[in-house]
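[Solved] Which block belongs to which protein?

Original post:
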Amino acid sequence: LERKLEASQDPDTNKDFRCFLSAEPPGLPLQQTIPEAILQNSIKISNEPAQSLRQLLFRAWTNFDQSNLDACKRPKDFRTILLALCVFHAMVNGRKKFGNMGWNCGHIYGFTLGDLTQCADVLNNQLNARSGARA
């Protein structure tokens, strides 16, 4: 990868050429996914998580637009359970600052916005499959 990026510095390369890399930090310090030289010569952009529970909840809830909320056949149930999922997401991510204290596992899993979106998709599918009257 490093050699290919060095080759892109040739004068023959299009002046509008840009290379975008997206990566999450590896779990162990010994695992390096991107060479250090590339990281040192790159512009880095990060999306820092919110700090307070209120900000975390707002960030989680605003991840869903109106089309997501209207996609379910049972919108009232969907919104209620989705709010509970967003609160859970905010609580889990808010607890990260305390480390492993209070958890029964040796590592902390990052409950990302992508995971939250997948949970909402599963919720939508389950509620649509059971779109009849509630028991």
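(Second protein starts here: sequence line, then its structure tokens.)
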Amino acid sequence: MVKRSLSLLKRVFVTIPKLSPTHTRCKIKQWTVPTNTDVTCYDPVIILKCTPDVISNGYRKYETHEPLMIVEAHDEGKLIIYEEFANAAGTGAEEDSSAWLDVGQVIGEIHDDDDDVTETNEWIWQAYTHD
């Protein structure tokens, strides 16, 4: 019989990541997996539309460029998207209906499939351009 150690039970808060030193806000464009889905390392979980400040002035395509970024989880467990953000993604139409969210805003969590979570950590992620 295998018994899980309590030290392995953890919860990770999923936040809007700070994608550059100057980055301040973004919008949720699309969740790539639904809530209550088990995710593993390198699973893409969210596409974000970022404010122009994510890229330094001299490197933007144009002054008001709002790049899309795809973010991968590097934590394993069940992704729980908080209800107020689960349907926050834009409609895909020209007008984006989602709200701007500040870097650090908690939008969900990843945790072991156990109610007795004993440890809370920052989430580990990797992001790439998605234009």
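Accepted answer:
You had them paired correctly. Confirming on the second one: The longest helix spans residues 83-86.
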